[in-house]
Structure formats: structure tokens, C-alpha cells
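Please produce the structure of this protein holding iron/sulfur cluster.
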Amino acid sequence: MSKMLNLKLKIWRQDGPHSQGAFLEVDANDIPEDASFLEMLDVVNERLIDDDVEPVTFAHDCREGICGTCGVMINGQAHGPEKATATCQLHMRKFNAGDEIVIEPWKAQSFPVLKDLMVDRRAFDRIVEAGGYISAPTGTAPDANEILIPKEVADTAMDAAACIGCGACVAACPNSAAQLFTSAKLAHLNVLPQGQPERWKRTENMVETMEDFFGACTNHGECHEACPKEIPLDFIAMMNRDYMKSKTKNRSLSSQ
Amino acid sequence: MVTLDAKIPDGPIAEKWDNHKFSVKLVNPANKRRFDVIVVGTGLAGASAAASLAELGYNVKVFTYHDSPRRAHSIAAQGGVNAAKNYRNDGDSVHRLFYDTVKGGDYRSREANVHRLAQVSVDIIDQCAAQGVPFAREYGGLLANRSFGGAQVSRTFYARGQTGQQLLIGAYQALAAQIALGRVTLYNRSDVLDVVKKDGEAVGIVTRDMLTGEVSAHSGHAVVLATGGYGNVYYLSTNAMMCNVSASWRAHRKGALFANPCYTQIHPTCIPAADEFQSKLTLMSESLRNDGRIWVPRDSDEARGADQVPEDERYYYLEEKYPAFGNLVPRDVASRNAKTVVDEGRGVGPLKNGVYLDFAAAIARDGVEAVKERYGNLFDMYERITGEDPYTVPMRIYPATHYTMGGLWVDYNLMTTVPGLYALGEANFSDHGANRLGASALMQGLADGYFVLPYTIGDYLAPKLGDSAVPTDDPVFTEAVQEVDDRTRQWTAKTGGTHGVEHYHRELGKIVWEHCGMARNEAGLKTALSEIPALREEFRKNVKVLGSPDGVNTMLEKVNRVDDFMEFAELKVRDALHRRESCGGHFREESQTPEGEALRDDENFAYVGAWEWNGPDAEPTMHKEELNFETVALTQRSYK
Ligand SMILES: Cc1cc2nc3c(=O)[nH]c(=O)nc-3n(C[C@H](O)[C@H](O)[C@H](O)COP(=O)(O)OP(=O)(O)OC[C@H]3O[C@@H](n4cnc5c(N)ncnc54)[C@H](O)[C@@H]3O)c2cc1C
Ligand code: SF4
Ligand code: FES
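Below is the modeled complex.
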């Protein structure tokens, strides 16, 4: 059997976006160290229900670190202490018996708290809708091997496309900036040959939509530290370059 | 009286789809916008369908319980997607993919559907590449392939270990473009709790807004369910936590027949449960079986660590029993054999609930670096979850529920037995028979959504030109809304419950896993058939749901889902009981060869069992769709 931990939790509770929140202090005893962080919360919730207390709401789904639904601040760190690990993949063996663990929702103006630890990340979808796609209506595609893509390019696109849209980058950023997310979305499409025709329009629209919702980037790099997929900061530089270029390119394309 | 007409087109198998595309009715481009189509689900099947229908000009409303379409369960698929491109020049073809799928499904699927699937598979890769899906490439820039799940050709396309995520992002981006254009309206965080019919046809749905609790009606000319599979009836599975059967089940209660609910795929390589609090199981890619050797100690009292057990005291049971295929036998065979050795008491790990998957030989042969190159990500994931280093200690694995081949019965057009109601992706039953081949679910979801439904839906809609959608103040809607509202509010209105919903789900899972899991027999199934209704009754009486129905309440969402699983589980067991043969993922202990292999009974069971709901207190009726194999000859699988 796995070793058991006794922990002290401080969990943020808040009824809705416009309510006052407060910490719930609760002892979490006999937590197996092989449990995941979210399984620990499951256990706490079952015990709360036994005591007729409404369980704590937190977002989650795949529990495999791929859907990007989960994510909380654990002792002030987005997704907690383990590098390159989403909250659902964090396991209790990373904690010590007797630890106090403070659990809070993502904190960012553009991610309002919906309830307890669950926030609204719709702003991310708005950024994608602004241009995060390649227009290729179903049925129009040429044979897949007609577009040759050097392995290095495909690999870079894949590195960028690994972003799971969790929002930890925004939560970790002192300015609540969404540069890492947006640049990952852009780099995925902008490096590919299929992505070239819409590259400048896409960049301009996505960056400006991002700015409508999120704060400005001042190069702290906290986003990368918190990112469960270790999205590299280089993509932000690429986005900035593309954005500058987009301003002239879009004008000259439309005047052709 | 229900009659099952599969509407299989005439002609030779290879021409059926083309003939059919020519003979279906079309909706004129300018008229498409006069039709409202409701799509439920934004996984591969739903997102691809919604985007494609909107591109054609239909007015689409798409619903998901997720916050963003990109989070659907499809995102978790790791391995890859099949297509008969024959880019490797290794003898693949549409016919071979068709043949492999029919055979892999143990001859319990409909030939015509499978052939169409193989045909459109090639278009899927083109479509996804054009969208920017970053498939793996060779140095020359061409697409890379691998052989997957024991296939004899390399036809699997992949994007690192994240194929599902990348395909879903492709479909989601196409959908986002249509949302931005205003051709798709997205209803996120909307739980679909009923399907509404008028004059026998599907006319809309009822949803609960998961933020406000508001129950409302949505109307359309057709309703498409792409709501995924029912694997979470087992509680523990590799499915995402929110996956559920509710949309399909509610449709079933409204007259859609449910086909082959007993068919479930149990995947052999998952990480065993660590303790009783385990909430879900994690799949380790099947590719690990290419290099890992599976064994357990011969002695069930073995107390030494794996590295201390001498070679001759190790039982490499797959290699011994199946010398030709060894560790690469199909999923069902590998799973059942793991169960056998664990049931014999030879299991490994603290709970003795796993078998070893050992890479020591591969590391000795190819070196650590080579193994790291191949499986590094998977080894890291394993270590993160278990705290053990698979480079030095063998992995422990055990089978877990993974995929469900059964689902809503659909005809060749993907329409259920309710006119105007379609089912796509894992939610339907059509293409995988009794067992699904690796990398074929992604293919099927995208085939249905990109390339099948957009052609077939016009056949139903064309004659309705000029009819407006039924208004949501029609009594069929107001009554349905009232019913859903009452049903949802009953849970929080009750007082004095004993356990939370999780408890009952776990208990249900135990019954279904024990008696309707990897191996089934008459006595066990009958036990389950008596235990499930008793548990359901206790659950309905005693489940404790706190909080308000008028806001975010995840327990309330779950209680409706578990309520549906409680009914569905009974149908599943009933189906397993009636099918007194073994086929694919359905292993009846009474029907096996002397060597302990699955024994089909083609004479009596070469049909689809489609169940009709007769009300909560009546037994369901089974209807048969006989399966006619005109192209593929039936043989008994053998992996010896
Ligand atoms: C771990 C894992 C790995 C896999 N790997 C592979 C692989 O390598 N290759 C392969 O081919 N297959 C694989 N599969 C199988 C494959 O991923 C699935 O079968 C497939 O993605 C299902 O897609 P779908 O679109 O039918 O459903 P899903 O992706 O499950 O989507 C269902 C959608 O319906 C919505 N929904 C459901 N019910 C409701 C409701 N009541 N109200 C509102 N919305 C609702 C959900 O929000 C979601 O958007 C894997 C499966 C698992 C579990
Ligand atoms: S960039 Fe990283 S932290 Fe930000 S959303 Fe993507 S995966 Fe999450
Ligand atoms: S729950 Fe899916 S990433 Fe954590």
C-alpha cells in the first residue's frame, strides 16, 4: 500500500464572478502519496459531502495532461511545483507529510472565476476565432504529399501545436499577458507552407484580439516556467517579428 | 413496429458509395442556409461535421458541455490515424484496409459501411494536412507512417504521441473559422439532457446551461449526436472523466435503437489502479508491446523484486502460448491473458493487480538511448504517475476499458431509427463490429463528420425545403423542458441522502467490470442483472446532492449522467447475456475453443442486436439486422 500523508489545505471558495471569496481551511488526512493532486481533491470532496458541505468545484476532464481543462495555483505556482506537469499529472508524493497547501484559481482579469477553482477562459477561443486557422474547406485539399514539409519545419510546428490551452502562462504572468499561448498558436500555423497565404492577416488579427483581452508582455518568462508543455519563449520573438511585418505586408498585399 | 432498414446501396461493394452519392437528394447551395442543423459534441466527429456543414452553407448550432470545443475527449488519442494511402508501397489498398477492419471486427460489422470508411480514409489525411495538422514527416518532407496494433502494413499517420489532439485542433480551428463567420453558433457549457420529437421526427434538444442552471429548448431541422462512447459505465476507464452515455441514452428512450451495447474494447496496456481512490486509468501506448516483454512470476507467492526473479522462474505467457505473435497478439487476447494470470494470483505490484512489461531485453539489445528515443515520453509519463523508473524497474500494466464499439444503431446514411436524428463517431455502432483496430476510431470519427454526413444529410432535408423549424414554444418543447427541469431539481430537493454520486458510480462500475468485463458467463451476467436494478433503486433513493440547481453544480451534472448509466448498464448486461457466442471484445466463457480462444457462432449470431426501449418497467425488445458478408469470407481468427 502507498504511504499516507496528512496535509493542511487552504482552498479558495467563491460562489460566482461577482461574489466575495474566502479560504476554506480543511485537514486532508490519510491521503495516499500515489494519488494524483485531483484525486486528493476528490477525496476531500467526498468527505465534505459526508459532512453536508458542498464540494469544491474544480475543472478537469482527461486527467492525462492533454485536454487543458485543469489548472489551479498551488502555493502560488500555476500547476504546482513539478516542472512541465499539469495539475492533473501532479502526484502527492511531491509533497511532505504535514505540508500546508494553498489552492487558488487562476488569477487574471480575463479569466473570471466562475465558481471556486473554476475560471472562464473563453478569451482564448476568441483569439483563435480571430484567425487561428488555415482556410481549407472540406473537400478542397490536394494530396497530402503534394505539400512537402521539411522535417524540421514539421517538428517546429508540432512543438508549438503541443500547447493545451490551459492558461497557466497567463496565470503565472505578473501582467496576465497571453503572449506564450498566442505565439504558440501562431507559430504552429505560420511556419507551415499551408499557413503562408493567411500569415500576415492571421498575425495582425490574433495579436490585436489578444491585446483586447490581456495585459502587455514585459519579458518575465514566468509563462514558460509554468507551462506544462514547455512552450519555448522563442515563439514570442517570432510573433513580435511577424506582427511588425504584418503591418506593412497587409497594407501592400491589399494594394496589389 | 420498428423495421431495421440499413439502406445499403446496390451494386458491387467498391461502387456502392459512389452510386449512393449520385442517388441521394441534394439541397441547392442557396437553400442550405434555410436549414438549421443541431450538432451535439465537438470531438472529432462533431467538430468536423459542424464545420463541414457550415462550409456548405447550413445554419449550424453546436453544443458541448466543455468550456471550449478543443477539450473533447478525442484530444487524448495518442497512437495515430489509419488511411489506405499506400505511401509506403507495402501493398496497402482500400480493399486491404476494408478487409482488415471487417476481420479485426470479428465479422460483426456491416461491410458496406466499412468499405466506405476505407475509401474516404485517404481524403481525411489530405484534409488534415491542408488544415496544418503537423503530422510526422520524413527528412525529404513526405509524410511518415508506422505500423500499428499488429497491422501488416504501415498505414498509420501520427503527430508525435498526440495525434488526437492535433486532429482535434485541426477540426476545432475549422470550426472556429465558421464561428467567426457567424455560420456556426457555439453553445459551450451546455449539457444536452434530452432529444425532442414531433410527429415521429427529431426536431430539437433540451439543454441545461451549466453556469446558470437554466433549462431551455433548441430547435432544428435535424439533430446530430456525436457524443462519444459509454466506457465510463465501468467507472474506471481510460476515458475522460466527463464522458457519458446520456445523450445517446435519452435518444434511445425516445425511440432510437441501441445496437450491440455489450461490445467494449479493453485495452491491454494501462497503468493499474494504485488505490481505492483511483479516479481513472491511464493508457500506455500499444507501441510499447513492440519492444517490451510481458511476464509474471511463475510462483504466485513470489516476493522478490522483478530483477531478482531468475529467467526460468518468469512466465512469459504470451510468448509461450502464441509463439508466432508473442507480445503482439491483438488487444482482446492480450487483455484476457493478463486477467487469467492475475486471477491465478500471479499479479505483480503492491495490490498484485498488474503484469510486468519489461524493457530490460530491449535496453540490453539496443541501448538505453535507442529505447529513450522511441519511448522517452511514455516512460516519463509512467514515472510521473507511478514514481517508478521504467528504465530500471519493469513497468506494471493491466487492461482497462478503452473504447465502445456498440452505440446508436444507424443506417448507411448514419441516421438512427428516429428520422432526422443522426449519430456519428464513437456514439454510433457501425464500423468496428465486435472489436476495433488501433488507429481506426479517429479515422471513423473524421470520416463520418467530414465526408459522410455532409453528403447524406441532404437526402433527409431536401424534401423539407420551406418547412420552418418547430418553434420552441410548441408543446413538445415546453413539456420536454419541464420534464428535464423536474428531473434535475429532484436531486437537490431530496434530503437525508447517504452517499455522494461518486460512490454509486464506483459501485456500478464494480458490478459491470466484474460480470461484464473481459470475460463473461451466464451466471455472472444474471447476477449483474439482479444487482444493477437494486443499486439503481438505492442510488435514486439515497444519493446526496448538495448545492443549488440554479448555478454551477458539477455533482448535479454528474448525477443525471450516473442515473442514465444505471439504466444503460442493465441493457449492456442483457445484450451480453443474449449473445451466447464469443466475438471480438465480447468473450463468453461458454463459447471458447479447446485452447481457450474466442469461438464465434456465425450460424446463430451473425447479426447486429439492436434494442428498443419499452419504458422503465418493461423489458426491451431486440431487433436483428442480419449481416451479409458478400465480399469477405468468414474465418476464425487464430494468432497461434
Ligand atoms: C486514451 C485514449 C487513446 C486513444 N487513442 C486512439 C488512437 O490512437 N487512435 C484512434 O483511432 N483512436 C484512439 N482512441 C479512441 C478515440 O479517441 C475516440 O474513439 C474518438 O476520439 C471519439 O471521438 P468522438 O468525436 O466520437 O467523441 P468525443 O471525442 O468523445 O466527443 C464527444 C463530444 O460530445 C460532447 N458531449 C457528449 N455528451 C454530451 C451532452 N450530453 N451534452 C453536450 N455535449 C455532450 C462532449 O462535450 C464532446 O465534445 C483513444 C481513446 C482513448 C480513451
Ligand atoms: S502556452 Fe503552455 S501554459 Fe500557456 S496555454 Fe499553452 S500549454 Fe498552457
Ligand atoms: S484534466 Fe486534462 S489536462 Fe488536466
